[in-house]
Structures are given as structure tokens and as C-alpha cells.
Specification:
With 180 residues, the chain is of the alpha+beta class. The protein is 32% helix and 27% strand. The longest helix has 23 residues.
Length: 180
């Protein structure tokens, strides 16, 4: 879908939801069945996937582990958000790359130390946008998309976040680092 079509579609949705807030209400549901070991069959609407732990974590390695899927979900959601908000704000973005790095301490989830919480301690997002748009316009796209991203909003407030933006000009292999 082209940027103009994305913008028009989401502006129509926003207008409809502003007039009738109930249009914005929804639910999401998945069915998860634990099989042998840690293998889970996940069904969501008409799609299916297998989730498992790698063999060094006691699984059979038949699917992606939950932590990989969570990083993929958040990173993909951010990338899609930059494309969407670029279109909505009229800022051309040729390509988006998101690299997400998480730090954690397994002692928390294993109950080894009461002083260590389970889960991620911090995440770092290294975002590269390829665009000839002005820096301030690209920064506005990123800040708007991050602020309104539903997957990012689901992260616990205790997870420290670092965000680094690089701009690559079309036709150039070099990136200019910018920290919002």
C-alpha cells in the first residue's frame, strides 16, 4: 500500500473513532496448547505457529522461544509504526531497520535471588531510517510512533529504554547518528 493510501485509510479510521469511540474497542485472543516438553501450538484466528524452548533450555527447538517472539513483535510493531506515521505526517521514509537488544538476569526467573526481578532489565532500540526528509521531521515521526505504539506500551515501566536513531540518506551507505 502506498503512503497516500495508508494516510487516507488511517485518517478515515481516526475520524470514525473520534465520532464513535466504540469503533475503537476490541479484543485479541489466542489459544495455546502445551504439548510434549515445552512445545506450544498457538492458534490466532486463521494463523498457527509453534513456540518452544531451544534444546539448551530443555526444549526441542521446534519453534521460536517466547523471548524471540516478544522482541520480534515489538521491533516489527515499531518498524510498522514508523512507516504508518511517516505516511500520516507526510514524511517520506524509504526504508526502516530496527535492531533491538535486551538485557536480563536469569536469576530472577529462576528464583535464585529475590533482589533480581524476572524479565528484561533494559531494552535498546537502534533505528535506522533511510530518507531524504529533514532530521526534525524524522525525529517527529519516531517520537510520535514510539509514544503511540501499543506493543511498546505493554512493556513494564521498570524496563529501562534506550533509543538511538540513525538517518541514512537515499543512495548513501553511511548513516548519520542522532539520539532523540
Amino acid at each position: 500500500m502506498k503512503a497516500a493510501e495508508l494516510k487516507a485509510m488511517f485518517e478515515r479510521k481516526a475520524r470514525a473513532m473520534a465520532r464513535r469511540p466504540a469503533f475503537g474497542h476490541g479484543t485479541g485472543q489466542a489459544r495455546i496448547r502445551l504439548g510434549d516438553g515445552f512445545v506450544c501450538d498457538v492458534e490466532h484466528l486463521d494463523r498457527k505457529l509453534v513456540v518452544d524452548q531451544p534444546t539448551h533450555q530443555g526444549g526441542s527447538g521446534r519453534g521460536h522461544p517466547p523471548d524471540e517472539l516478544m522482541r520480534a513483535s515489538i521491533g516489527a510493531s515499531l518498524a510498522m509504526g514508523y512507516r504508518l506515521w511517516g505516511a500520516r505526517l507526510g514524511v517520506r521514509i524509504d526504508s526502516v531497520e530496527v535492531e533491538m537488544t535486551c538485557t536480563y538476569d536469569e536469576r530472577g526467573q529462576l528464583g535464585v535471588s529475590d533482589d533480581v526481578p524476572p524479565g528484561w532489565q533494559s531494552v535498546r532500540f537502534d533505528v535506522t531510517l533511510t530518507s531524504d526528509a529533514a532530521e526534525d521531521e524524522l525525529r517527529q515521526v519516531v517520537q510520535t510512533a514510539d509514544r503511540l505504539n501499543p506493543m511498546l506500551a505493554n512493556l513494564a515501566p521498570s524496563v529501562r529504554r534506550g533509543h538511538h536513531l540513525a538517518i541514512r540518506r537515499a543512495g548513501s551507505s553511511a548513516s548519520e547518528r542522532i539520539v532523540p
